[in-house]
Amino acid sequence: MAPMTSTPLPTEIAKRLKRDDSGLVAAIVQDEASGEVLMLGWMDDEALRRTLNDGRVTFWSRSRGEYWRKGDTSGHAQYVKSVALDCDGDALLVRVEQIGAACHTGARTCFFTDLDATVGAPTHATGPAAGAMSEIDQHDLKPTHEHHPTEDPA
């Protein structure tokens, strides 16, 4: 790995990360404008620090054993718009402005191979939201700005 810089990842962020055995966290990259999921990469603390500070996405390449900033060789850069940590601390969501293709194959997204899957649909609401919906259904909901004819509009 490359040597750490003089400004490490802030402690409050580093404490929340749950890294795999190699010290990496999954980073899901999403197009900010369209919401399209573009790719999955891996970040260690230094790659995340660079991503947060430089405005461009940096990953740790597991196959090459080095850092790579998306677009430096291909021109297909990813400009950071926001970075979020999931509830468990084991995944990042990096929203970007994508220039060109996100995938090394030249495709816009790395997720272009659909698998056969049974499409599911709920038959009835279950879980915590089901109780909330039942409660709402039982009450007569009124608009928040209801007009009463007897009120003076002025």
Please specify the SSE layout and strand pairing.
Elements: H1 11-16, E1 25-31, E2 37-43, H2 45-54, E3 58-61, E4 66-69, E5 78-85, E6 91-98, H3 128-138
Q: Can you describe this structure in just a few lines?
A:
This protein has 154 residues and is of the alpha+beta class.
Describe this structure in words.
With 154 residues, this protein is of the alpha+beta class. The relative contact order is 0.16. It contains three helices and six strands.
Structural class: alpha+beta
Average residue pLDDT: 83
Spell out the helices and strands N to C: HEEHEEEEH
CA-to-CA gap between the ends?
Answer: 70 Å
- Gyration radius, in Å: 23 Å
Shape, principal axes of CA atoms? globular
Biggest pleated sheet:
4 strands, mixed
- Helix count equals 3
Number of DSSP-assigned strands: 6
Beta-strand content estimate:
15-25%
Keywords:
globular, disordered C terminus, 154 residues, 3 helices, four-stranded mixed β-sheet, alpha+beta, two-stranded antiparallel sheet
